[in-house]
Write a structure and sequence with these properties.
Keywords: Membrane, Transmembrane, Transmembrane helix. This is DUF3488 domain-containing transglutaminase family protein. By secondary structure, the protein is α+β, with helices and mostly antiparallel strands. It is built from 25 helices and 19 strands. It folds into four domains: 180 residues; 299 residues, no CATH class; 42 residues; 74 residues, no CATH class. The chain has a five-stranded antiparallel sheet. A five-stranded antiparallel sheet has the order 8-3-15-18-19. The chain is elongated and about 135 Å long. It starts with a helix and ends in a 5-residue tail after the last helix.
């Protein structure tokens, strides 16, 4: 079909609206696509609009094939593959745009419209928040309006198609809600996720720590997790949320050592003081660590997880979707009362030939005969009394990063302090390691829970002496406000405070907390509607097993579809006449039709009755009376209530014996 022929089915105005709807659907993907692909999609949409307006010919088949292969090559070059969540979505978006250059027949247009519905689903790969659902619902209405317009060209205005599409989507919502509530849920995803599932999730903490890593993470105010305490929350100086633990240092970066994680044995930890029980909802991280208040109880852990000998709570698989779990932690504990010779060597090892000034300083403390706790106190006193600055804008460090920080720049963020302190302890012969996680959290009074954001990311040190590991936070020595009141209280206005903290006001905070509460409810009741929540909800209505749920779903679906069918039949039925006389005559016609006498189209009431009476003279009395009353009421004079009543009685009294 030529472009002119296609315009007979798809006018230029409709095609332009199709391009606008496609742009509406693809726009949120711009942040996930390579720049070249976004530019190419915009170019294709622009060219297709101009081609329709100016009646340009469509590209030949060989050029279309070349574009397809170029698109495949471009996606492969950008992602290294063409399958999976990110690359597959990018390829689908590009192919949808390329489909525009071969809109030649009605089938192509329908394929394009239904492809838009499919594209909507891909947005949930990257965001499942409330605004995403609202945006996609509006996009669904726009696609449905486009579908209606393509089926009824010229019959409805754009406003009318939008109204009809909105009504159709609104009518589908109760059925959607019913299916959502009653359809049996199974643990885990309904299908196998691609290898890069969760690629869009904020990774948060990583499996290593270098200067600047935590400071970069602080720039984001995205939620890391939410926590609800059973009872009073622990004080700020006890709200250390434990994550990855690093015990290997190469001179710049802290990483995990080469030893595989081992489950923490029962005799390796002793809990002291009061327990803290809480429920934590962790956002996707693509990492195996499950954040926990330092230190979680080794028993009653989440399914498919273990507490290793470093105190890390590890899931069996990376956290690619939001998870919720309940834990009991003890802020006071004794961990690993014994360290063997090999462990001591590993936890005091340092890269050879690096940072000689820091090594000499720490060995000097040891040579003075100071005990391990005294060396820890001396190092903290040095940080507290000398001109160290807590800043998000530290200068770049060279090869000997520890020496440069401790003796030259003295400006850094928590990773600089924890890394340097741990290095000093190791140089003094004290086993030490770096722990990363989060510190603090903001209370949302509306929901009664704490929000821990990426901006609460933190790093501290652990040193071993006296038969246990001890948490030491060198950041607290230079900026105690960080522990007690949060990041914005510890960072000066000229030290790189993130914009979202610098612009904080009371009303902004209030709006943010209310929006987070709404998101938390959405996450818990909608996104978290799994088998357990479904069972608890349906037990209130006596549906406590799978068979009952399936039966209820079947009954409700059957009832709903029956009601819809009856409503459609009622709409399709001929409208009931408002003329009472005509309704009575139609009732008499139906009675005669049942006896085999049907009024022909060229017959009036008088001729019809005359023909019937010619064959059945025994019906003369009732038929003639009813016909005369009908003619008088309908044609001879204005309707009269008495005549109408007489006609109704005559029709009812008309007995037609066989």
């Amino acid at each position: 079909m030529s472009e002119r022929g296609l315009n007979d089915y798809l006018p230029v105005a409709t095609l332009l609206r199709m391009l606008a709807v496609l742009l509406l659907i693809l726009a949120p993907h711009a942040s996930h696509l390579p720049v070249w692909e976004s530019a190419l999609i915009v170019a294709l949409l622009s060219w297709r609009g101009m081609a329709a307006r100016r009646q340009w010919r469509m590209p030949p088949r060989i050029l279309r094939a070349a574009l397809v292969f170029a698109a495949l090559g471009g996606v492969y070059a950008s992602f290294g593959h063409v399958s999976g969540q990110t690359a597959g979505t990018a390829l689908l978006c590009l192919m949808a745009a390329l489909k525009l250059v071969e809109l030649r027949e009605r089938r192509d247009v329908m394929v394009m419209v239904f492809l838009m519905y499919f594209l909507l689903i891909t947005h949930f790969f990257y965001s499942q928040e409330i605004w995403t659902a609202i945006y996609l619902l509006a996009s669904c209405v726009a696609i449905t309006a486009l579908l209606i317009e393509c089926q009824h060209l010229g019959a409805l205005s754009p406003r009318q198609t939008l109204r009809k599409a909105g009504v159709m989507v609104a009518q589908a919502l109760p059925l959607m809600l019913m299916m959502f509530i009653l359809f049996p849920r199974i643990p885990g995803p309904l299908w196998g996720l691609p290898s890069d599932a969760g690629a869009a999730a904020r990774s948060g903490l990583s499996d290593s720590m270098s200067p600047g890593d935590i400071a970069a993470l602080i720039q984001s105010d995205a939620v890391a997790f939410r926590v609800r305490f059973e009872g009073a929350a622990p004080p700020p100086d006890q709200r250390y949320w434990r994550g990855p633990v690093f015990d290997h240092f190469d001179g710049r970066t802290w990483k995990h050592g080469w030893t595989p994680p081992r489950a923490l044995s029962a005799d390796a930890v002793r809990y002291e003081g009061a327990a803290v029980r809480y429920e934590l909802t962790l956002e996707p991280t693509r990492m195996p660590w499950l954040l926990a208040l330092d230190l979680p109880q080794a028993r009653d852990l989440p399914p498919d997880s273990q507490l290793d000998d470093d105190g890390e709570l590890l899931a069996r698989h990376p956290v690619n979707e939001r998870v919720r779990y309940t834990l009991t932690s003890y802020p006071h504990y004794l961990l690993e009362p014994e360290l063997d010779v090999r462990e001591r060597e590993r936890l005091t090892s340092l890269p050879k030939g690096r940072d000689p000034r820091a090594v000499a300083l720490a060995r000097g403390w040891k040579a003075q005969g100071l005990s391990d706790p005294a060396i820890v106190a001396t190092a903290l006193q040095m940080i507290r009394r000398q001109n160290f600055v807590y800043t998000l804008r530290p200068p770049a460090l060279g090869t000997d990063s520890i020496d440069e920080f401790l003796f030259d720049t003295r400006r850094g963020f928590c990773e600089h302090y924890s890394s340097s302190f741990t290095f000093l302890m190791r140089a003094a012969g004290i086993p030490a390691r770096v722990v990363t996680g989060y510190l603090g959290g903001e209370l949302n009074e509306l929901g009664g829970y704490y929000i821990v954001s990426q901006s609460d990311a933190h790093a501290w040190s652990e040193v071993w002496y006296g038969g246990s590991w001890h948490r030491v936070d060198p950041t607290a020595a230079v900026a105690p406000e960080r522990v007690e009141r949060g990041l914005d209280a510890a960072i000066g206005s000229g030290e790189g405070l993130p914009a979202y903290l610098a612009r904080r006001t009371a009303w902004r905070d209030a709006v943010k907390l209310r929006w987070d509460w709404l998101n938390a409810r959405w996450n818990g009741l909608v996104l978290g509607y799994g088998p357990e929540l479904q069972q608890r909800f349906l037990e209130r209505f006596g549906l406590d097993d799978l068979r009952s749920m399936i039966l209820a779903l079947t009954v409700l679906l059957t009832t709903s579809m029956s009601i819809v069918g009856l409503l459609l039949l009622r709409r399709a039925a001929p409208a009931r006449s408002a003329d009472r006389a005509l309704r009575e005559w139609q009732r008499l016609q139906h009675r005669l039709a049942a006896r085999g006498y049907v009024q022909r189209g060229d017959e009036g009431p008088r001729d019809f009755v005359a023909r019937v009476l010619g064959e059945r003279p025994d019906w003369r009395a009732p038929l003639q009376t009813a016909a005369d009353l009908y003619l008088q009421t309908r044609y001879l004079q204005a309707p009269d209530a008495g005549l109408l009543t007489a006609l109704q009685q005559a029709v009812r009294a008309a007995r037609l014996p066989a």
